[in-house]
Amino acid sequence: MAIIDWDGAAAGERWEDLTYIVWLWINIGSHNRKHIDIFGQMKKSLRAYGADSETLYDFAHKLLWRMDKVIAEMSKDNYQYERTREWVAFSKVWVYENRIEIKNEIENLKM
User: Fold this and answer.
1) Which of 55, 61, 81, 94 is close enough to 29 for a disulfide, judged by CB 3.0 to 4.6 Å?
2) Residue 27 carries which DSSP code?
3) Cβ contacts of 66-72, under 8 Å, gap ≥ 24
4) What is d(CA 63, CA 52) in angstroms, rounded to the nearest whole number?
5) How do the pLDDT tens digits run along the chain, 111 residues long?
6) b/e for 48-83, b at 16 or more Cβ within 10 A?
């Protein structure tokens, strides 16, 4: 099974797509999600994708980078800009607060 999403397609690193997928589909940082569920689904997604050690290395930093990229590339004239900026900021707080657990759980993930 595969998913192809051409929205925002561009040349880049493999991990850029994966961090975006993990962030959006798992809804990292949601008030309505349990911490353990986020980590469980993150691990399942990374395994399903076949993430290599290079992709898993410093995954929290890669997530933060990807979140910054979303807001940096969004026009401030976009009617969703303020809402998206707040969501990005909230998501980044979750990643930052859980960066050590992300490092421990994700960087040592066995494929």
Assistant:
1) 94
2) T
3) 66/16, 66/19, 66/20, 66/23, 67/23, 67/91, 67/92, 67/95, 68/92, 69/16, 70/20
4) 16
5) 666 666 666 778 889 989 998 999 898 877 788 877 899 999 999 999 999 999 999 999 999 999 999 999 999 999 999 999 999 999 999 999 999 999 999 988 877
6) ebebeeebbebbbebbbebbeebbeeeeeeeeeeee
